Amino acid sequence: MHSVMRGRFTTTFLFVAGLAHAAPLTLTQAVDEARTHGFDLRTAQLAVEQARGDRLAAGALANPTLSIGAGPSLGCYGPGCRAGSPTLTASVSEQGALWQLLVGKRGLKLDAAQAGVDSAEAQQADSRRQLDSLVKQQFVAAITAERAIEFSEQVRDSTAQTAALIRERYKAGAVDEADVSRVETQRFEAEQALDASRQNADQQRSLLAFLLGRESGAKDLTLEAGVYTRPAASPELDHATLTELITRALEHRADVRAQEALVKQAEATVASLERQRVPDVALGATFAQQGLSPDFSSPPNVVVSLSLPIPIAYQLQGELARARATVQAQKVALEKTRAQVRTDVESAWAAFQAARLQSRRMDDNLLRQADRARTLVSVQYDKGAASLIEFLDAQRTFVAINVESLQVVQAWWTAIFRLEAATGQEFSP
Question: Using CA atoms, how far apart are residues 411 and 390, in angstroms rounded to an integer?
């Protein structure tokens, strides 16, 4: 039965009845779909667009102002002067834009804004790293759940055949009613396990559809299992060391880059605020003339002016104190992020090593021994050398080991994908 069970594990699983002709989704396609439609990545992309908008705003220069005024003269002197003669004034100011360029205020604001863009883009890459890992893990979980259905169906059919055989023996007086009850109990347990497997498969497909951003849910979701029904060799990890993986993770993890950019942004903000303490000098010009008639008009007056605030009462002490504290907070956050990277790699590496040992033990010993024990006890039971309880116990152990083997395969791939997420690199085929 075990050999038949393993032989029926095909590489393509159809999760919805009636979709036999639907093209199955590969893991690569699932990852690509999640990157395009995944909710978190779409949100991260919008955060990047917001940061780019902030950069545009930081580089903007103040628009010049133009003021024009007109009104009657209330009094005038000289030949031809008449009360009510119009007076015109006009003034223009460049609002300190030239000064901000000369002293570098605009450049410092742009540096801070660019660091914000760099951080947002790195956070987007980190969201993609996490989403890729979640999709891969959920993809394998869905495949494992469908394999559990196939195995549960085989167990149900096998126990049904055994129950039918025992009922025939009971009619012939070869076994007692207690044996019939034991076999029937195991048959109902198989039915229960099959129902639970189907429910779990539905849940796993729904979770995967959510990660893919599918509005239609899992009703049209079919998956191609590929190599993910068994552990695969990973030569690169066979020769890797924990220290090497931690070093590579610190170099490749996008969340580290994002936090480094936040530190630069905080430092650039402090530099910008310190430069803002230099008063902005605004250049202006004013034109004024009284009277417009040929009989009377005063000579036009043009005045060039410089204006600047005098920083006596306040010099941005509060903003600078807050910005300097933000720099220290971001540096602490960077230390925490790096420590988290080390913890992630250590945890993923430990899980990978355990999964590798369990996989080898399962393939080399447990599956073969459970199958052999079940076969031998079955022969002994047919010959009367073993009791029904011993046969059912061997059957139950065989089922438990095979269910565990599915979990071991899933644990193997989950460990691989977690290690990929922890290091920011890919190791799976």
Answer: 31
pTM score of the predicted model: 0.80
Residue 55, domain CATH = 1.20.1600.10
Rounded to 10 degrees, the C-alpha dihedral 420/421/424/428 comes to 20
Residue 374 lies in a domain: yes
Listed residue (295, 225, 280) closest to 81, CA to CA: 295
pLDDT tens, 372-416? 999 999 899 888 888 889 989 999 999 999 999 999 999 999 999
How confident is the model over 206-249, as pLDDT tens digits? Answer: 999 999 998 877 777 889 988 888 888 777 888 889 999 999 99
Q: For residue 156, which of 395, 410, 326, 356 has the smallest C-alpha distance?
A: 395
272-284 residues labelled b (16+ CB within 10 A) or e (exposed): bbebbeeebebbb
Contact status, residue 270 vs residue 111, Cβ threshold 8 Å: no
Q: What is the pLDDT of residues 4-49, one digit of tens each?
A: 333 333 333 333 334 344 589 999 999 999 999 988 899 999 999 9
Strand partners, 284: 93, 305
Instruction: Give domain status of residue 154, yes or no.
Output: yes
Question: For the chain, how many structural domains are there in total?
Answer: 1
Which residues are CB-contacts of 279 (< 8 A; sequence separation ≥ 6)?
308, 309, 310, 311
